[in-house]
């Protein structure tokens, strides 16, 4: 049994179809990133999983329980930790009082270790907390009862780099213990660092679910080269070359135009690197670097271009034709 199962999940707000036939599963013990820009529909899915919104159509199951069955969902929630995008703690209570309340409701096996890790202030009223401190307190309340599954809405927003780092380490350790983590994000570096798989949502529709590794494979390499020759764009427009930028600079020489020419180019390459190297052998290279492309490139292939809402016309990570 998967930890989360969505089948055709649809939420129609009238003016906006916030989730449109969303189908995927999150397996037990994995860290699953739910990625999309503002307004894509992430929070809508999450609030449905928590039983806070009723789906217009489709089904959602959390730890095997149908989220529209209140009793069953209550049962599941004993094993669930949830960090909302804006935790609504009692503003007049201190952090310590908030934790005592949560402990009384759902248990408190782990708060001591969590307090050491995330260090939220405890003796001030929550209304005096910064955004980051509210989230630190939220992380403690999310994990304090040792849940099997955690659902986190943009968990690292507002956290300073030290706490983000601790959080990342902590999530990996949780996964080792068999905990399932589902979190939404629009921070690609975080998804890349933490997730086993990622689901990408656009305009309410899921456009892909795949391992982070395969997303990275598709994102290809960034190639930068300098060659002691004038190379035309056409000569470099081989299979797998995208976003080609070239410039030819003339060095030395006199006013008659004598001197040498150097071509500098940058492109993303999604083909066979050996074939590329064989192709480049005919030029005298002064410099060559091949680095892993940032995940942003893949993301832009989903979100760049026209504002289509038709998922069929954007079936997934289609490669652009060679030649940039
Ligand atoms: N209660 C509501 N009534 C009407 N429309 C809503 C409601 N809640 C959300 N929406 C709309 O549904 C769409 C999806 O919103 P949602 O909050 O799920 O997106 P999100 O991916 O979580 O965005 P963000 O990253 O900004 O939090 C948006 O167009 C939003 O304006």
TrEMBL record:
InterPro entries, alphabetically? AAA+_ATPase (IPR003593), ABC_transporter-like_ATP-bd (IPR003439), ABC_transporter_ATP-binding (IPR050763), P-loop_NTPase (IPR027417)
Q: Which Gene3D superfamilies match?
A: P-loop containing nucleotide triphosphate hydrolases
For this protein, the record's Pfam families field holds:
ABC_tran
GO molecular-function terms, A-Z: ATP binding; ATP hydrolysis activity
By its UniProt entry, which SMART domains does this protein fall under?
Answer: AAA (SM00382)
Domain ABC transporter per the UniProt entry, residue ranges = 4-228
Kindly give the CDD domains that the UniProt entry links to this protein. ABC_DR_subfamily_A (cd03230)
Q: Which UniProt keywords apply?
A: ATP-binding, Nucleotide-binding, Transport
Question: Which protein family is it in?
Answer: Belongs to the ABC transporter superfamily.
User: Know the name of this protein?
Assistant: ABC transporter
* Source species: Haloterrigena salina JCM 13891
């Amino acid at each position: 049994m998967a930890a989360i199962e969505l089948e055709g999940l649809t939420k129609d707000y009238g003016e906006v179809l916030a989730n449109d036939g969303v189908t995927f599963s999150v397996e037990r013990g994995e860290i699953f990133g739910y990625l999309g820009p503002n307004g894509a529909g992430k929070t809508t899915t999450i609030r449905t999983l928590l039983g806070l919104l009723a789906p217009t159509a489709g089904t959602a199951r959390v730890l095997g329980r149908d989220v529209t069955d209140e009793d069953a969902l209550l049962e599941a929630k004993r094993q669930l930790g949830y960090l909302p995008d804006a935790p609504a703690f009692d503003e007049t209570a201190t952090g310590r009082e908030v934790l005592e309340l949560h402990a009384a409701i759902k248990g408190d096996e782990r708060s001591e270790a969590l307090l050491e890790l995330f260090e939220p202030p405890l003796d001030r009223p929550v209304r005096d907390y910064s955004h980051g401190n509210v989230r630190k307190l939220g992380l403690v309340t999310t994990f304090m009862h040792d849940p099997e599954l955690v659902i986190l809405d943009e968990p690292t927003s507002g956290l300073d780099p030290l706490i983000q780092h601790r959080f990342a380490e902590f999530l990996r350790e949780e996964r080792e213990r068999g905990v399932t983590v589902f979190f939404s994000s629009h921070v690609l570096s975080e998804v890349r660092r933490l997730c086993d798989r990622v689901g990408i949502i656009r305009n309410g529709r899921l456009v892909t679910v795949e391992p982070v590794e395969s997303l990275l494979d598709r994102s290809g390499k960034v190639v930068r080269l300098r060659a002691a020759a004038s190379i035309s764009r056409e000569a470099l427009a081989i299979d797998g070359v995208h976003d080609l930028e070239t410039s030819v600079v003339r060095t030395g020489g006199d006013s008659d135009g004598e001197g040498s020419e150097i071509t500098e180019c940058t492109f993303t390459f999604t083909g066979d690197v050996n074939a590329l190297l064989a192709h480049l052998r005919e030029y005298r290279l002064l410099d060559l670097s091949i680095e892993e492309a940032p995940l942003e490139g893949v993301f832009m292939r989903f979100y760049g271009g026209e504002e289509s809402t038709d998922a069929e016309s954007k079936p997934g990570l289609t490669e652009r034709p060679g030649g940039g």
